[in-house]
Amino acid sequence: MSRLIVDGLTVTLGTLSGPRTVVREVGLTLGEGETLGLVGESGSGKSLLWLGVLGLVPPGAVVTGSARLGDTELVGAGQGQLADIRGRRIAMVFQDPMTALNPYLTIGRQLAEVVERHHGADRSTARRAALDLLDRVGIPDAARRIDLYPHEFSGGMRQRATIAMALLGRPDILVADEPTTALDVTVQAQILDLFAELKRDGGLTQVLISHDLGVVAGLADRVAVMYAGRLVEVAGVEDLFACPLHPYTQGLLAAMPRVDRPGVDLLATIPGQPPDPARLPPGCAFAPRCLLADDGCRHAPPVLAPVAPGRQVACRKVGAP
Amino acid sequence: MSRPILSVRDLIVRFDLGRGLFGPDRVLTAIDGVSFDLGAGETLGIVGESGSGKSTLGRAILRLIPAEAGQIVWLGQDLRRLGEGAMRPLRRDLQIVFQDPLAALDPRATVFQSIAEPLATHRPDMTRIQMREAVSRWLARVGLDDTALDRYPHEFSGGQCQRIGIARAMILEPRLIVCDEAVSALDVSIQAQIVNLLAALQRETGVALLFISHNLAVVRHLSHRILVLYLGRVAEIGPAEALFADPCHPYTRALLAAVPPPDPVAARGRRRAGLTGEPPSPLNPPSGCAFRTRCPLAIEICATTMPTAEAIDDDALHLAACHRWRDRSTQGA
What we know:
The structure holds two protein chains of two kinds. By secondary structure, chain A is α/β, with parallel strands linked by helices.
């Protein structure tokens, strides 16, 4: 049973230099209790895909296609309905916890507000719920810290607090956008353990957006790879890391220096750089950097197609007999 | 290592934060007695969490910020004893590349002006035509071409700006470059290009690198030796592979264990965090060993006595500042 079905989702931003399509015809399903890793480099559209699903795109942007959560269509839904869904059914955690928290309110007050807003609880019930969650996300001495302000929290504790805030609405799906990118590696490890616990104990469905393949490897069940606004590969996590099929995925994995292996002389590189979304080539967006590309690749963009059970790849050079 | 080109001894950097609202003067010790050597053509990776002092260390060595005590011996001269006038000719040998290449370049200067600026300062003998040729040569060497010469930084991507920053640092053919998180803001595919470029430039010119980074994978890949900083002190220093194969300080072990490997099989079921909590404030460091408040091996002596660096191997290349480094097999972290 699928909880969220995204189909043909396209996000076009209105910029000063005209409309710019940053997410193109993305289709994916999110199963109950699964963790989907979404990887891609800056500008690949991995964050805007989810902002599009949740109706959080900047003014002037246009979202088309479909994102169905159970029986509810999110694309084109009114802001009132979306506000109700955000937090209560799909919650999002961002990279920089300081911008997600109100500096003028204590941690406890802003968490309690979420409970009051979504569940109509009274103040003392809401505070108890907030305290429970701060405890659960591993804030030490939560009973005292609940009355502190965000600036009195360390970076790691702030991110724990925003995760607690996201969980307060008891959402079905948690979308975490680069949740550990701003944190030190020892603190990142603690937050990743927390996500693993939420999955194991609570069965929470999670989307983990990251540029770091290491972060995704340990938590995701399936991984989707984005390049220039499109999904280029979707696969089970072990398949993807053991046997990447799309040339971009292969290049990305090969370009990573490995912390778990001695250094090599030369890292594999992907030549060139990601394309400007305003000037995408007519064919496969990766073709200008791809060693396998031929005239056919430069002509029309490839379609994301199944190549094996649970595996999809958008490349004309893969899966052809 | 042959004779070091740089020997740092007992370096101390303090920042006076001024008076608190009611309290006495607050002084932050950012670097607290750091010593190490760097050989010609060598890369020393400097790792540690934010607040460990790694950027401060790099800047203090270049005398971009003043050190309070200790020695920075560069080719036999203690830089701390030199006046700005005596320091100036040495600066052509000592360069730096920053994390945010766009912020490090003057937005109103063309690429030619940015890269040629060190030449204008240090090589007044060069004609404009010679400068143009030198800039063009270095542009080609970092993977850009002459069409870049008269353009402005905002017209380039992050990776291209970092190439420009590297050309600017290399143009005087320095003997040391401090790379301060030089590839941290770049995407993986671009990061690999820049890492390879730095390694190639080092092979060709013999430039030594102080490679400051929070990214342990990049540091392992690029470094000959690695220095682990914790709260302004050296926790461990040693040859890169020895440090990864046999990390002797519990902080090094925790740091290495915390990095998620890009390998779902190895990552499965593994608890990541070896450490609880976050580094203590450098304004109020713990007594004794700075790491003891998070250390699974801490005992009484760790609270009373600051550990000194002890040699792990016979050649004293691998050092750890831990009272319990011999008990390292007892910790699972």
